[in-house]
Design a protein that fits this description.
By secondary structure, the protein is α+β, with helices and mostly antiparallel strands. The chain has helices spanning about 1-10, 15-25, 35-70, 85-95, 145, 165-170, 215, 225-230, 250-260, 270-275, 275-315, 315-325, 330-360, 360-370, 380, 395-420, 425-430; strands at about 75-80, 100-115, 120-125, 160-165, 180-190, 195-210, 220-225, 240-245, 265-270. Helix 3 runs antiparallel to helix 16.
Length: about 425
């Protein structure tokens, strides 16, 4: 009676022992088939690939956004129609708004820059010397640029700052701090032969790096007073660079700015500037997740074949168990455990390997670079300095649970079939 009571216990010791023995048995002894092993390996690779892929994509998004938002405003305020004094007053009002960390005026104009016989288009960002400290990508708060003479001298001096790849990138100007460059503007200077583009020579005082190749290949920082003269904008700014504690809360910030200024300022945010870029990231992330999940589903479907083959090999065992008191539900649970264990072990190993790869992504990239010509992840090609990866534990848990439930779900089919086996027929033909 005690044995029968033990047998009747759902997922009891007997059922767990049988499932484990079937999994451990060698193939020639009727154990787990090659198909079962393949399904285990498939789930392992699918789970690991999904974790690594989604972590890298999260890293791409976070790193790219950090780089972009380090070099561009969170919220733009258009002040070109206001005087310098009026723009400064508006900036002071906005600084008092909760969630705003800094407000800096600037002028931005596109120019042609030449040096060493090379020329390329660039964008001049005019900024006040005291506002250099608000630029998050300048680790020293612009001290090295100031030490080189940025903002010093008559009308702000002639020292400027260049982005890393504009200065010395693959398609850059090939210059270093201390070298001279010439900037040509679209503004005209009247002469006896008609108008000619305004131009002036400057000294490169410092090289900055935002982390975004796009920005570092484009931008020049120039003292505000000098830019106002060069671009004939004396007494005026063009924009306000408004930075927030949370760059995602731009809508709330723009509403607060409108209320504080009485709708005196036209504003727009970085999201509107990068809408297509953000949409592309979302679509790509969704499609990659769906693709890998389909692969995982296919891998778990192999469990059906594996467990069915196991049931065929163990038909005599099933018949004997049925005759000594193990019910249909007990047989179902035994083979449900077999399929679930296969999926669980594959998922756990996949989670472990995926997490280890993500946590050591730099070492993995360096290891791959040893065996390939050139770099797998080129900075100027991809716009980042290294392969980024951010481990999202919620994504890891969701992936593991998905693999577990898929394995359990597909195991129900062969387990149910095993429970419907006729013990009399199985013993007769044995």
């Amino acid at each position: 009676m005690s044995e029968l009571g033990h047998v009747a216990l759902p997922f009891g010791k007997l059922e767990r022992t049988l499932a484990w023995r079937y999994l451990r048995a060698k193939r020639e002894h009727g154990g787990a088939s090659l198909i079962s092993i393949i399904s285990f390996v498939g789930i392992f690779f699918a789970v690991a690939a999904l974790i690594i892929t989604m972590s890298v994509m999260s890293g791409f998004r976070a790193t790219l956004l950090d780089a972009l938002l380090g070099g561009q405003p969170h919220v733009y305020g258009v002040v070109s129609s206001y005087t310098e004094e009026e723009a400064n007053a508006l900036a002071g009002t906005i600084r008092e708004i909760d969630g705003v960390t800094s407000v800096t005026p600037y002028i931005e104009e596109y120019v042609l820059i030449t040096a060493n016989g090379r020329k390329t288009g660039a964008a001049v960002r005019a900024i006040r010397t005291e506002d250099l400290a608000t630029m998050p990508f300048l680790e020293d708060g612009g001290k090295s640029a100031i030490a080189a003479g940025f903002g010093e001298g008559r009308n702000g001096g002639n020292v400027i700052m260049l982005g890393k790849f504009l200065a010395a990138g693959r398609e850059g100007l090939g210059i270093r701090p201390g070298d001279k460059v010439e900037i040509v503007t679209s503004q005209q200077t009247a002469g006896p032969m008609g108008g000619t583009p305004r131009s002036k020579s400057y000294v490169v005082g410092d090289i900055f790096q935002t982390g975004s190749v796009e920005l570092d290949s484009l931008y020049i920082f120039m003292p505000m007073e000098q830019a106002q003269i060069l671009f004939q904008s004396k007494g005026h700014y063009s924009m306000l660079d408004i930075r927030l504690k949370d760059p995602e809360k731009t809508h709330e910030a723009m509403t607060a700015i409108a209320n504080a200024t009485g709708n005196a300022l036209y504003t727009f945010d970085w999201k509107s500037q990068r809408e297509s870029y953000l949409n592309a990231l979302r679509v790509e992330r969704t499609m990659v997740r769906l693709l890998v999940m389909v692969i995982m589903a296919i891998a778990t479907l192999n469990i059906i074949v594996g467990v069915v083959m196991l049931v065929k090999n163990k038909s005599r065992d099933i018949a004997i168990l049925r005759t000594i008191g193990l019910g249909r539900n007990g047989v179902l649970r035994v083979f449900l455990l077999v399929g679930t264990v296969l999926g669980t072990l594959g998922a756990l190993l996949g989670v472990l390997v995926g997490v280890l790869v993500v946590l050591n992504i730099g070492a993995v990239e360096a290891f791959i670079n040893v065996f390939v010509q050139g770099e797998v992840f080129d900075a100027e090609t991809y716009g980042l300095e290294g392969l980024p990866a951010i481990l999202d534990w919620s994504e890891v848990i969701r992936t593991g649970l998905y693999a577990l439930f898929m394995s359990m779900g597909v195991s129900i089919i062969p387990a149910w079939w095993a429970s419907r086996q006729d013990p009399v027929s199985a013993l007769r033909f044995e």
